[in-house]
Amino acid sequence: YTRNEYDATKPPPPAPSVPRNVDPELWGIYVDADPYLTQKLDAKQLEKALSNGAWPPLALKTCIFLIRSYDRTNDMLTFNLFEAVWKLVMDFKLAFAKFDKTRINEYEWGHIEYQDLKKALQEAGLVVSQKIMDLFQKRSNPNGQTYGWDQFVQAGARIKVWASEFERVDHDKDKCVTVLYDQYMDMVCRCQP
Length: 193
Hints:
Helices cover about 50% and strands about 5% of the residues. The protein has helices spanning about 25-35, 45-50, 60-70, 80-100, 115-125, 130-140, 150-170, 180-190, and strands spanning about 110-115, 145-150. The protein has a two-stranded antiparallel sheet with strand order 1-2.
């Protein structure tokens, strides 16, 4: 899932200065993950960048879903999209912390129970019905009743991808769409990692 092309035998160019109206710390994290200044992060680079956050590391597959939350065409993040992903992960962190009853300290996170998953996702700004939550549980975590940090972020990112894809074709915003078979297949394919 590394798609950025650069010559690793050459030293990286000097880091660009911080653009106006940009958080310098976040810009530094972005540039550090993109040393050859391609101006786009792939999943491996996002995984590296997110390891600088105040949360446990996230798996590569989770990073792919986070990218898909904002870019289902190129699977790459510009700085503006990286800012959006960072904010989304921050929202997930706050929601997870609120429902994690087993957390030991800031470095050892526990899990949230399945019965709290829907409320935690809502806390992070994602709305999903109980019917869909039950189906999601059956498909994504059939043997467990708990979600660790990475599982929770991946669940939230997947649901965000699905919701965004639906909203893309719901032109009149009435939560009802009619799609042709090819459109449906395109929607399904855009949501897969």
